[in-house]
Design goal:
This protein is of the alpha/beta class. The protein folds into 4 domains: 182 residues, P-loop containing nucleotide triphosphate hydrolases (Rossmann fold, 3-Layer(aba) Sandwich); 63 residues, no CATH class; 173 residues, Rossmann fold (3-Layer(aba) Sandwich), CATH 3.40.50.300; 70 residues, no CATH class. Helix content is 34%, strand content 26%. It is built from 19 helices and 24 strands. The strands form 6 sheets. Strands 6-9-10-3-11-12 form a 6-stranded mixed β-sheet, with helices on both faces.
């Protein structure tokens, strides 16, 4: 073991019933280094992270872990934190009824000397919180790590990007020697990603070892010093930064070469199939305020209509409203030139409208079910004889998507809760397609998905529109939005800021419209009048 190595995993093997998740996986992280960890969904990354973080305790896996040259044995994540391994999970997990400082030190009060025992009350052994000290410690922690948060801020009012920073600060409060960041940019805007990278680079300069897990190759190329690639639970390769080659990294990840990330298609756009007019959606929590203001757009058969805009622009909300998941205060919806009334998701599906939600955990899956139940529930007529559901039809129907979408699971009976995030997303897409919709709303369909799976979904989009399906694509990844859209409607502040035809869809044009300030325009017009 080199003296520059701080954390080393040797021959980690982890088995689940019917699945070998990690097969003699090795990984080493160096002092003052940003180590990238990349691989397809189901490659074994999450399993390895749970071993490193003590979620899978010593004895439940084979192999050895070393920290600063000494073998470590952990029974739980608290052990990992105590010995110097910090972990920030992919899912945002904050206490929304508390302040920033309280979130950071809630589990760490004694360690920081913020809580002291009441020696006069031996029966209850109660503790008092020194809030002044807590806020001072928090302010110093945030300042030293270049995290721009107010210790007293109400967490409920923080943006997603700020909540992500809060989680990093919480992990740093225990003074880790190694910090693991699992897909930290999945839900962040471009500006939030830039701020995150500034924080991570600052940690590297201070000598901290950072393990950075991502599906985004541009982040690997830009941020990391080395990258380790896993595939099918095994080590495939490790590259130093000077050896980085995007084509080679992709080939090692997925076991094949991708010639075109965004497969080309010939567009054969037909007549208008779906139109929304002047949709207004009230704010669910604030009286007399609207989230969406008079939004209108249309999509044609065989067309991909992109919905662009910054995080919080209202793209998802307008689609949730059209799909019957949020109430509209005004507006009309037309299908094939005829007005339809959608009061629920059942109405939307009945009219042939499908939606792939950005939040698969909240809206997309039943985690107690297996693959086949999750896939086929959207179209029971296709798997029934009258009122009798056919087990054989369910099996055959689900199997089409299981094989066609290359879902990595041991069988159709595998519970979706055991799948990687990317494979869960494939199940969500399969369930939507199973209902045979004419119009599909895809809200961040490649979020948290590896490069190979993204390429497969792009090919699927091309296949669907070639069959005449209309697709509304919401994407925060500008290269994806530009490459896949025939036309783009840009939203800002809950309004339509403009529309771009294929030849005009560029990053600059999108961002100019996405940053349009309607409030300032209204104030200027008011002043003129």
């Amino acid at each position: 073991m080199e003296k520059t190595t701080i954390l080393e995993a040797i021959n980690i093997t982890k088995r689940f019933p019917g699945v070998l998740a990690n097969d003699k996986v090795c990984l080493d992280a160096r002092y003052g280094e940003i180590l990238g960890l990349i691989g397809e969904n189901g490659a074994g990354k999450s399993t390895l992270l749970k071993v490193l973080n003590g979620v899978y305790p010593t004895g439940t896996y084979e192999g050895h872990l070393f920290l600063e040259g000494k073998e470590i044995r952990m029974a739980n994540p608290q052990d990992a934190m105590r010995i110097g391994i910090g972990y920030v999970p992919q899912e945002i997990n904050v206490l929304k009824n508390f302040s920033v400082a309280e979130n950071i030190y809630m589990a760490n009060l004694k360690l920081e000397g913020i809580a002291s025992s009441d020696t006069n009350d031996k029966k209850t052994n109660s503790h008092f919180i020194d809030f002044k000290k807590m806020h001072e410690e928090c302010k110093k922690l945030l300042r030293d790590n270049k995290i721009n948060l107010d210790p007293r801020a109400d967490v409920r009012k923080l943006s997603i990007g700020q909540q992500q920073m809060l989680m990093i600060a919480r992990a740093l409060a225990s003074n880790p020697k190694v910090l693991i960041l699992d897909e930290p940019t999945t839900s962040l805007s471009n500006s939030d990603v830039e701020r995150l990278f500034t924080v991570v680079r600052n940690l590297k300069e201070k000598g901290l070892s950072v393990i950075f897990v991502t599906h985004k190759l541009d982040e690997i190329m830009d941020l990391t010093d080395r990258v380790t690639i896993l595939r099918d639970g095994r080590n495939i390769n490790t590259f130093e930064k000077k050896e980085y080659n995007e084509t080679k990294i992709i080939a090692d990840m997925i076991g094949r070469t991708i010639n075109e990330m965004y497969p080309k298609r010939e567009s054969h756009i037909g007549e208008e199939i779906f139109r929304v007019e002047n949709i207004t959606v009230p704010h669910p929590y604030i009286a007399n305020r609207d989230l969406i203001h008079n939004v209108s757009f249309s999509v044609h058969k065989g067309e991909v209509l992109g919905l662009g805009g910054l995080v919080g622009a209202g793209r998802s909300e307008v689609c949730l409203a059209t799909f019957g998941m949020m109430p509209m205060s005004s507006g009309r919806i037309y299908l094939n030139q005829k007005e339809i009334h959608i009061k629920s998701t059942k109405d939307a599906v009945k009219y042939g409208i499908g939606m792939i939600s950005e939040d698969r955990k909240k809206y997309g899956l039943n985690f107690k079910w297996g693959l086949k139940e999750n896939i086929t529930i959207s179209n029971l007529d296709a798997v029934s004889y009258g009122t009798i559901v056919s087990g054989k039809k369910i099996e055959n129907r689900a199997n089409q998507y299981y094989n066609g979408m290359s879902i990595k699971a041991s069988s159709l009976d595998t519970k979706v809760i055991t799948l990687s995030g990317g494979n869960q997303q494939k199940v969500v897409i399969a369930r939507t397609l199973n209902a045979e919709p004419k119009v599909i709303i895809m809200d961040e369909p490649t979020k948290g998905i590896d490069v190979g799976s993204k390429n497969e979904i792009y090919a699927l989009i091309n296949q669907l529109v070639a069959q005449g399906t209309a697709i509304i694509l919401i994407s925060s990844e500008l290269p994806e939005l530009i490459a896949m859209s025939d036309r783009v409607v840009i939203m800002s502040e809950g309004r339509v800021a403009g529309e771009l035809e294929k030849g005009d869809i560029t990053e600059m044009n999108i961002m100019q419209l996405a940053t349009r300030n309607f409030r300032k325009e209204e104030e200027t017009e008011g002043g003129r009048s």
